Amino acid sequence: MSVADAEADLSEDDRRGLELIRDTGGIHQSDFWKELEVSSRKGSRIVDSLAEQGLIQREETVYEGHNTYYLTPAPRDLDFSLLMAGDKLSPFIGEEEVDPNSDAFSQWIMTLAYEEY
Fold first, then answer.
1. Beta bridge partners of 67
2. Do 7 and 47 reside in the same domain of the chain?
3. How far apart are CA 38 and CA 54, in angstroms?
4. What is the DSSP string of 102-114?
5. Would you tell me how many other CB atoms lie within 10 Å of the CB of residue 46?
């Protein structure tokens, strides 16, 4: 099942949850259900559903002294071919010099990609 197919089959609650995780770029599960204004049980079911469909990733963590998960959007098979020149990133013009190997640049590219969906 493709990501688009999985997203098409989401319930309204799952869709809202996925949108929240994508908009924030990552959120602790203990804050996730509060932001969605659902019970912790319902929030856990939404997270389970999204994770099972491969739409999010969750990583165990400690937050405010409690064990929880940190939820992030799952990486997707994105087409970056328009940015490539052979095996190199295509040159671009900007006001500031940007290191294409920097985390900030990678995050910017991923943000642009997620905004398309």
1. 62
2. yes
3. 22
4. SHHHHHHHHHHHH
5. 27
Domain that holds residue 54: 3-73
Which pLDDT belongs to residue 113? 75
Q: In what order do the strands lie in the sheet with 56-63?
A: 27-28, 66-73, 56-63
13 neighbors 36 (Cβ within 8 angstroms): yes
65 and 89 both lie in a single domain: no
Residues 65 and 86 in one domain: no
Residues of the chain with pLDDT under 50: 93-94
Neighbours of 19 (CB within 10 A): 12
pLDDT at 90 (0 to 100): 61
Q: Which pLDDT does position 93 carry in this prediction?
A: 45
Q: How many domains does the chain have?
A: 2
